[in-house]
From TrEMBL:
The lineage of its organism: Eukaryota, Metazoa, Chordata, Craniata, Vertebrata. The keyword RNA-binding does not apply. This is G-protein coupled receptors family 1 profile domain-containing protein. Residues 39-286 form the G-protein coupled receptors family 1 profile domain. Pfam families: 7tm_4. CDD domains: 7tmA_OR4A-like. GO terms for molecular function: G protein-coupled receptor activity; olfactory receptor activity. Its main location: membrane. It is a multi-pass membrane protein. PROSITE patterns: G_PROTEIN_RECEP_F1_2 (PS50262). GO terms for cellular component: plasma membrane.
């Protein structure tokens, strides 16, 4: 990557400088990351090998949400875990740019998948007779491809802005990963325009998507008055699950990307929840609150255990 400044590496300060606490950070986030990977892989394998979870909600959107959650967490968690036991938490300029690209690629993809899941819910609840036509396999594939393209464009925009920053002083990043906000505070140039572009890019993406999602669920919940009691109960359960995921993801996202690059005491914890906590919580929410997914998991494990015992 083209470098337009004298800085060749950055030093990540991590979550804490206390050696005893660093060991706790290593243990806690190693468990968190392991749980994230195993939980999301369990959902991916369940959907892949299940014959009953073939609807777009599962086969496309929940599948990709779990895949993206795994990648999103992997873009930050392994470095946080390794750095917790490292004397010097050094990240090269190119590695920093790569981490920014991955963080925004998978973060944007998660946003788009959550929006597509809301579209699927709207079609299933408000247009049930036309649902097979509206959300057919070809349409879902096109939507997923467009989501990846949109995520790639968003990430490229972030990298272009990052490469325009000039660093000539401190290289200490008061975070556990590279992102635009902490880099803006280290820049030796006027960052007003770049920060405005970052907010209008990442901030607008988070805020506008959140508003669209909330409006869509207000419309969906309003339409439930015409459904039967059983239909309302099932739809409410599905929508509530999705709304919880949306709030948990977009709350920290909006807090981080819709303000100037100023420092708040809670910034690190909000960033941790956004990049590591949400990918861990998502599989728990979708398995614990989704009876259909839990039933399929039980059946698949029962078949697996039965087949192994007969060998």
């Amino acid at each position: 990557m083209k470098q337009n400044n004298s800085v060749t590496e950055f030093i990540l300060l991590g979550l804490t400088q206390d050696h005893k606490k660093q060991k706790m950070v290593f243990a806690i986030f190693f468990i968190f990351y392991l749980g994230t990977v195993l939980g999301n892989l369990l959902i991916i394998v369940t959907i892949k090998f299940s014959q009953t979870l073939g609807s777009p909600m599962y086969f496309f959107f929940l599948f990709y949400l779990s895949l993206v959650d795994t990648c999103f967490s992997t873009s930050t968690a392994p470095r946080l875990i390794v750095d917790a036991l490292s004397a010097k938490k050094i990240i090269s300029y190119n590695e920093c740019m790569t981490q920014i690209f991955a963080l925004h690629l998978f973060g944007a993809m998660e946003i788009f998948v959550l929006v597509l899941m809301a579209v699927d819910h709207y079609a299933a609840i408000c247009k049930p007779l036309h649902y097979p036509i509206i959300m057919n396999r070809q349409v879902c594939i096109i939507l997923i491809v467009l989501a990846w393209i949109g995520s790639f464009i968003h990430s490229i925009a972030q990298i272009i802005l990052a490469l325009r920053l000039l660093f000539c002083g401190s290289n200490l990043i008061d975070r556990y990963c590279c992102d635009m906000q902490p880099l803006l505070k280290l820049a030796c140039i006027d960052i007003y325009v770049i920060n405005l572009l970052v907010v209008s890019n990442s901030g607008a993406l988070c805020t506008s998507s959140f508003v669209i999602l909330m409006i869509s669920y207000i419309v969906i919940l309003h339409s439930l008055r015409n459904h039967s009691a059983e239909g309302r109960k099932k739809a409410l359960s599905t929508c509530t699950t999705h709304i919880i995921v949306v709030v948990l993801f977009f709350g920290p996202c909006i807090f981080i990307y819709t303000r100037p690059p100023s420092t708040f005491s809670m910034d690190k914890m909000v960033a941790v929840f956004y990049t590591i906590g949400t990918p861990l919580v998502n599989p728990l929410i979708y398995t614990l609150r989704n009876a259909e997914v839990k039933n399929v998991m039980r059946k698949l494990w029962h078949v697996k255990i039965t087949s192994d015992s007969k060998k």
